[in-house]
Design brief:
This protein is mainly beta. The protein contains one helix and ten strands.
Length: about 180
Amino acid sequence: MKKAIELADTTFRAYKTGNGDIALHLRTYLMVYANADFLAKIRNARPSLNLYEPEKPAGLSAFMKEHPRCWLQLPGRKQRECELSYSCYPASRSIQRPSRPGWVTLETQDIADEESTIFYCSAKMTVRGDEDIFGDGNVSGLIIANMKMVFEINFPGHAPGQTIVMRRKVAVTRRGRGW
């Protein structure tokens, strides 16, 4: 079966918070394999404005059976669930088009090609500051962790309720001050 979804980047960044805890952030993009017809369906999946109708999912959420989930296992620790979020509509860019002398108009365009489009995605987790996740003497501030993401999708051309499980080795790197 053809691919449905994948991640563009899987590097978690670790930051010290004001109270000494460690915040782990993954900021990436979901690569969703969607042709023009499926992309149009995603764009047209909008919530109803009628307050008396039940709320419907919008955009990409309309094609997810359940909200995706993410777990991260740091070296020598138990697997913990991350808070995962994603945009319902494709990432877009603005393009300047000349309209008349001295004037331009901005045209919004999805970032996509003939077979895929991208959606913003992020995961975050907080670790207590007294836990040394990088290990004593780790000058470079870089470790490898195990990540698991689960998507239950209802994409056209795929089995209804298909479960996609991504297991990856991911880099966790130190960022910011206070280390």
